[in-house]
Specification:
globular, 14-stranded mixed sheet, about 230 residues, 14 strands, alpha+beta, single chain, 4 helices
Length: about 230
């Protein structure tokens, strides 16, 4: 799927691009089911997530309270970054309710931010490469199992990072264009705010706080409305 191609989607589903670059391109595609009651059980939700083929699809179970359910093509996630940034933007909410806890959101000009705890994110390997060129030279996921986030400093003094993410979970998603949870974990590990260029041209901003939480922010655009 390129930057602007999206699959035909059923009525009631919006397709967003989350963490778009400064030029409004790229970003990670996200399916949002505005009325989760239309897919009432685990089987129907997983079937739709597989059909859409996005790295994640969000089912909105309560649009006023921000109760949402996040699915990959193969499993349910208790937390994920880009789906929550996208849902916060679409629903225009200040709080999203998840099984792991409440995620706080805010709008700041062109950016939507969420605040979450790094321990809510699924574990992954954060592997530092020696140069941006090495990160960009990868033509396929590195061998191994489990989520992998490779990164290199683009400008360490300015906090600019080049990164790519490989889920390595055999669900048809070879590379994740923009991964908020991984960005949050990297920001927490380094203990500093980051400006991350991921994938083909997506941008993720992070800001760790003294209480151990991390803010993740980015641009969100509507790509299609079903």
């Amino acid at each position: 799927m390129n930057d602007y191609d999206v699959p035909d989607v059923p009525d009631g589903i919006d397709v967003l691009r989350v963490f778009c670059g400064p030029d409004g391109r790229h970003g990670n595609a996200l399916g949002v089911v505005r009325d989760g009651r239309r897919y009432p059980d685990n089987e129907s939700r997983q079937a739709l997530a597989r059909k859409l083929g996005f790295s994640e699809t969000v089912f909105v179970d309560d649009p006023e309270r921000g109760n949402v359910d996040i699915r990959t093509p193969g499993l349910r996630l208790p937390f994920a970054g880009h789906p929550l940034v996208g849902a916060a933007w679409l629903l225009d909410l200040e709080v999203l309710e998840l099984p792991v806890g409440d995620v706080f959101a805010r709008q700041d000009g062109e950016f939507t931010w969420i605040t979450a705890r790094p321990e809510w994110a699924a574990p992954r390997t954060l592997e530092r490469y020696a140069s941006v060129a090495e990160v960009e030279a990868l033509t396929e996921p590195p061998p191994g199992r489990g989520r992998l986030y490779v990164w290199a400093w683009e400008d360490e003094a300015a906090g600019r990072v080049r990164a790519r993410a490989f889920p390595r979970r055999d669900d048809g998603i070879d590379e994740d264009e923009a991964t908020g949870a991984a960005a949050m974990l990297l920001s927490a590990e380094l203990g500093r705010a980051l400006n991350i260029a991921q994938g083909r041209g997506s941008q993720i901003l992070t800001a760790p706080a003294p209480d151990g939480t991390v803010e993740i922010g980015g641009r969100v655009l509507l790509a299609a409305k079903g």
